[in-house]
Amino acid sequence: MKFIRVVQAGAIAAAFAASGVAQADPVNLLTNGSFEYPTVPNGTWVQDGSLSGNALFGWEYDPGQVVEIRNNAVGTAQHGVNYVELDSTNNMSIWQTIATTVGQAYEISFWYSPRIDQPASTNGVNVYWGVTLLSDPTITGDGGSINNWVKYTYTAVATGITSTLKFSAEGASDSFGGNIDNVAISTVPLPGAALMFGSALLGAGVLRRRKQDENPGGLAA
Length: 221
What we know:
This protein is mostly beta strands. It has helices spanning about 10-20, 190-205, and strands at about 5, 45-50, 65-70, 80-85, 95-100, 105-115, 125-130, 130-135, 150-155, 160-170, 180-185, 210-215. It contains 2 helices and 12 strands, in the order E-H-E-E-E-E-E-E-E-E-E-E-H-E. Strands 1, 2, 3, 4, 6, 9, 11 and 12 form an 8-stranded antiparallel β-sheet that branches. A 4-stranded antiparallel β-sheet has the order 5-10-7-8, with no helix packed on it. Strand 7 and strand 8 form a beta hairpin. The longest helix has 13 residues, at about 190-205. It is globular and about 40 Å long. It comes from Comamonas faecalis. InterPro entries: DGR2-like_dom.
Protein backbone atom coordinates (compact mmCIF):
# COMPACT_ATOMS: atom_id res chain seq x y z
CA MET A 1 0.00 0.00 0.00
CA LYS A 2 1.25 3.49 -0.74
CA PHE A 3 0.99 6.45 1.60
CA ILE A 4 -0.23 9.87 0.55
CA ARG A 5 0.76 13.18 2.01
CA VAL A 6 -1.97 15.78 1.93
CA VAL A 7 -1.23 19.46 1.39
CA GLN A 8 -3.06 22.61 2.33
CA ALA A 9 -5.12 23.68 -0.67
CA GLY A 10 -5.38 27.33 0.29
CA ALA A 11 -1.64 27.82 0.66
CA ILE A 12 -0.81 26.26 -2.70
CA ALA A 13 -3.56 28.28 -4.40
CA ALA A 14 -2.14 31.48 -2.90
CA ALA A 15 1.37 30.64 -4.08
CA PHE A 16 0.07 29.80 -7.52
CA ALA A 17 -1.85 33.07 -7.78
CA ALA A 18 1.24 35.00 -6.67
CA SER A 19 3.21 33.47 -9.54
CA GLY A 20 0.99 35.23 -12.08
CA VAL A 21 0.49 32.08 -14.16
CA ALA A 22 -3.05 31.65 -15.54
CA GLN A 23 -4.92 28.42 -14.81
CA ALA A 24 -6.47 26.33 -17.58
CA ASP A 25 -9.89 24.80 -17.15
CA PRO A 26 -9.49 21.60 -15.11
CA VAL A 27 -10.02 18.21 -16.74
CA ASN A 28 -11.88 15.60 -14.70
CA LEU A 29 -9.70 12.48 -14.52
CA LEU A 30 -12.57 10.31 -13.24
CA THR A 31 -14.95 8.28 -15.37
CA ASN A 32 -18.69 8.71 -14.76
CA GLY A 33 -18.15 11.21 -11.96
CA SER A 34 -21.84 12.20 -11.93
CA PHE A 35 -23.10 8.59 -12.07
CA GLU A 36 -25.08 9.18 -15.26
CA TYR A 37 -24.39 5.59 -16.37
CA PRO A 38 -26.37 3.40 -16.17
CA THR A 39 -29.53 5.11 -17.39
CA VAL A 40 -32.19 5.26 -14.68
CA PRO A 41 -35.80 6.24 -15.58
CA ASN A 42 -37.01 9.51 -14.09
CA GLY A 43 -38.60 9.15 -10.66
CA THR A 44 -37.07 5.73 -10.01
CA TRP A 45 -33.98 4.10 -8.55
CA VAL A 46 -32.04 0.93 -9.26
CA GLN A 47 -29.99 -1.40 -7.09
CA ASP A 48 -27.22 -3.41 -8.62
CA GLY A 49 -24.77 -5.74 -6.90
CA SER A 50 -22.83 -6.76 -10.00
CA LEU A 51 -20.28 -4.94 -12.13
CA SER A 52 -21.18 -6.99 -15.21
CA GLY A 53 -22.22 -4.74 -18.08
CA ASN A 54 -20.69 -1.68 -16.39
CA ALA A 55 -23.50 -1.42 -13.84
CA LEU A 56 -21.82 1.65 -12.32
CA PHE A 57 -19.49 2.46 -15.18
CA GLY A 58 -15.99 3.47 -14.05
CA TRP A 59 -16.54 2.63 -10.37
CA GLU A 60 -15.84 -0.53 -8.38
CA TYR A 61 -17.35 -2.03 -5.25
CA ASP A 62 -17.11 -5.31 -3.37
CA PRO A 63 -18.88 -8.36 -4.85
CA GLY A 64 -22.13 -9.05 -3.03
CA GLN A 65 -22.65 -5.39 -2.13
CA VAL A 66 -25.48 -3.30 -3.55
CA VAL A 67 -25.15 0.25 -4.84
CA GLU A 68 -28.23 2.44 -5.29
CA ILE A 69 -28.48 4.90 -8.19
CA ARG A 70 -31.35 7.40 -8.05
CA ASN A 71 -32.98 9.68 -10.62
CA ASN A 72 -35.35 12.20 -9.04
CA ALA A 73 -36.31 9.68 -6.36
CA VAL A 74 -36.09 10.61 -2.65
CA GLY A 75 -34.33 13.78 -3.73
CA THR A 76 -32.85 15.29 -6.88
CA ALA A 77 -29.29 15.19 -8.23
CA GLN A 78 -26.84 18.05 -7.84
CA HIS A 79 -25.56 17.53 -11.39
CA GLY A 80 -27.26 15.72 -14.27
CA VAL A 81 -30.08 13.42 -13.20
CA ASN A 82 -28.44 10.57 -11.23
CA TYR A 83 -26.79 10.40 -7.82
CA VAL A 84 -25.64 7.57 -5.54
CA GLU A 85 -26.65 6.48 -2.04
CA LEU A 86 -23.97 4.50 -0.19
CA ASP A 87 -26.21 2.55 2.22
CA SER A 88 -28.66 0.77 -0.03
CA THR A 89 -29.11 -2.40 2.03
CA ASN A 90 -26.08 -1.94 4.28
CA ASN A 91 -23.00 0.26 4.58
CA MET A 92 -20.73 -0.16 1.56
CA SER A 93 -17.95 1.53 -0.40
CA ILE A 94 -17.33 2.57 -3.99
CA TRP A 95 -13.95 3.50 -5.43
CA GLN A 96 -12.12 4.41 -8.60
CA THR A 97 -8.40 4.13 -9.39
CA ILE A 98 -6.74 6.60 -11.75
CA ALA A 99 -3.26 6.98 -13.23
CA THR A 100 -1.26 9.58 -11.28
CA THR A 101 2.19 11.17 -11.33
CA VAL A 102 4.43 10.90 -8.28
CA GLY A 103 4.67 14.30 -6.56
CA GLN A 104 1.74 15.79 -8.50
CA ALA A 105 -0.98 17.58 -6.51
CA TYR A 106 -4.60 16.70 -7.28
CA GLU A 107 -7.80 18.50 -6.37
CA ILE A 108 -10.61 16.17 -5.29
CA SER A 109 -14.13 17.58 -5.19
CA PHE A 110 -17.62 16.16 -4.77
CA TRP A 111 -21.07 17.09 -3.51
CA TYR A 112 -22.67 15.46 -0.47
CA SER A 113 -26.23 15.48 0.83
CA PRO A 114 -27.68 13.67 3.85
CA ARG A 115 -30.61 11.44 3.01
CA ILE A 116 -33.96 13.17 3.27
CA ASP A 117 -35.67 12.89 6.70
CA GLN A 118 -32.86 10.79 8.21
CA PRO A 119 -30.63 11.71 11.19
CA ALA A 120 -26.90 12.38 11.08
CA SER A 121 -26.27 9.05 12.85
CA THR A 122 -27.10 7.17 9.64
CA ASN A 123 -25.87 9.64 6.99
CA GLY A 124 -22.11 9.42 7.49
CA VAL A 125 -19.62 9.22 4.60
CA ASN A 126 -15.84 8.93 4.80
CA VAL A 127 -13.48 9.75 1.93
CA TYR A 128 -10.10 8.12 1.34
CA TRP A 129 -7.20 8.87 -1.01
CA GLY A 130 -5.35 5.59 -1.02
CA VAL A 131 -5.04 4.65 2.65
CA THR A 132 -5.31 8.26 3.83
CA LEU A 133 -8.56 9.42 5.42
CA LEU A 134 -9.43 12.85 4.02
CA SER A 135 -12.75 13.38 5.82
CA ASP A 136 -11.81 14.06 9.43
CA PRO A 137 -14.33 14.37 10.97
CA THR A 138 -16.72 12.10 9.08
CA ILE A 139 -19.04 13.99 6.73
CA THR A 140 -22.66 13.76 7.87
CA GLY A 141 -25.76 15.80 8.64
CA ASP A 142 -29.46 15.67 9.41
CA GLY A 143 -31.62 15.27 6.34
CA GLY A 144 -34.34 17.81 5.60
CA SER A 145 -37.30 17.71 3.25
CA ILE A 146 -35.11 17.97 0.12
CA ASN A 147 -31.54 17.05 -0.79
CA ASN A 148 -29.24 19.70 0.64
CA TRP A 149 -26.08 19.47 -1.50
CA VAL A 150 -22.78 20.80 -0.12
CA LYS A 151 -19.49 20.78 -2.01
CA TYR A 152 -16.33 19.39 -0.40
CA THR A 153 -12.85 19.96 -1.81
CA TYR A 154 -9.51 18.43 -0.83
CA THR A 155 -6.00 18.58 -2.25
CA ALA A 156 -3.68 15.55 -2.10
CA VAL A 157 -0.33 14.58 -3.57
CA ALA A 158 0.23 11.20 -5.24
CA THR A 159 3.16 8.99 -4.26
CA GLY A 160 2.51 6.29 -6.85
CA ILE A 161 1.67 5.84 -10.52
CA THR A 162 -1.93 5.04 -9.57
CA SER A 163 -4.14 6.44 -6.79
CA THR A 164 -7.56 5.37 -5.53
CA LEU A 165 -10.42 7.60 -4.39
CA LYS A 166 -12.91 5.77 -2.18
CA PHE A 167 -16.22 6.73 -0.53
CA SER A 168 -17.44 4.61 2.40
CA ALA A 169 -20.76 4.76 4.25
CA GLU A 170 -20.45 5.27 8.01
CA GLY A 171 -22.87 5.20 10.92
CA ALA A 172 -25.97 3.02 11.25
CA SER A 173 -26.05 0.29 8.59
CA ASP A 174 -29.81 0.40 8.08
CA SER A 175 -30.45 0.97 4.34
CA PHE A 176 -30.56 4.78 4.82
CA GLY A 177 -27.40 6.76 4.11
CA GLY A 178 -25.58 9.73 2.66
CA ASN A 179 -25.67 10.72 -1.01
CA ILE A 180 -22.78 11.56 -3.36
CA ASP A 181 -22.80 13.33 -6.74
CA ASN A 182 -20.59 15.23 -9.20
CA VAL A 183 -17.21 13.79 -8.19
CA ALA A 184 -14.09 15.19 -9.88
CA ILE A 185 -10.32 14.86 -9.71
CA SER A 186 -8.06 17.31 -11.53
CA THR A 187 -4.40 18.19 -11.44
CA VAL A 188 -3.25 21.28 -9.58
CA PRO A 189 -0.71 23.14 -11.76
CA LEU A 190 2.40 24.01 -9.75
CA PRO A 191 4.76 26.55 -11.36
CA GLY A 192 8.27 26.87 -10.00
CA ALA A 193 7.68 29.07 -6.95
CA ALA A 194 4.50 27.28 -5.93
CA LEU A 195 6.15 23.87 -6.38
CA MET A 196 8.93 24.82 -3.98
CA PHE A 197 6.40 26.19 -1.50
CA GLY A 198 4.25 23.07 -1.82
CA SER A 199 7.24 20.82 -1.19
CA ALA A 200 7.80 22.52 2.15
CA LEU A 201 4.18 21.90 3.09
CA LEU A 202 4.49 18.22 2.24
CA GLY A 203 6.89 17.69 5.13
CA ALA A 204 4.27 19.03 7.53
CA GLY A 205 1.55 16.78 6.12
CA VAL A 206 -1.08 19.49 6.45
CA LEU A 207 -4.72 18.75 5.64
CA ARG A 208 -7.47 21.20 5.04
CA ARG A 209 -11.09 20.44 4.25
CA ARG A 210 -13.23 23.09 2.67
CA LYS A 211 -16.99 23.03 2.43
CA GLN A 212 -18.21 25.24 -0.41
CA ASP A 213 -21.31 26.58 -2.03
CA GLU A 214 -24.36 25.13 -0.38
CA ASN A 215 -27.04 24.24 -2.93
CA PRO A 216 -30.15 23.79 -0.76
CA GLY A 217 -32.50 23.12 -3.64
CA GLY A 218 -30.51 20.24 -5.03
CA LEU A 219 -30.50 22.01 -8.40
CA ALA A 220 -28.14 21.01 -11.15
CA ALA A 221 -25.02 23.13 -11.33
